[in-house]
Amino acid sequence: MFTVGDAVICIDGDFPQEVWQACEEVPEEGGVYVVRDVVSMGHYLTGVAGVGLRLRMVRNPVMAPHCTKEASFSARRFRLATDEEVDAYLAKLRARLAELTKGAFDWPEEEERMIAGLDPVEPPKAEMPLFD
Predict the structure, then answer these.
(1) Which are the contacts of 120, defined by CB distance < 8 A and separation ≥ 6?
(2) CB 10 within 8 A of CB 31
(3) Which of 36, 57, 88, 105 has the fewest other C-beta atoms within 10 Å?
């Protein structure tokens, strides 16, 4: 069904309160993730066996005292992502990054023109001699 390295999309992000209490991070519905581990798991409430996924972008501490390993998320909450879904998700992340960093890399227009090669670059004028 799933293998390490697969791109998956979360189709069920409705996690019960117990998961939110045990985990620092949980997958977001509609989010695209990469599988880092496929494990046999027992459901945290019922103990029913199933397949769990650990994701590269989601890290959690060991779920002591209940078990000795990091939590995994039921494979039924995911499906393989298409290339188009991966591309769309990356575009969304890039847009969010641009929004968060807006203004952080803004250049004055004259410097931007010089960097782009539209204006000649003049060497800086030294106020003091560079060498004695």
Answers:
(1) 114
(2) yes
(3) 105
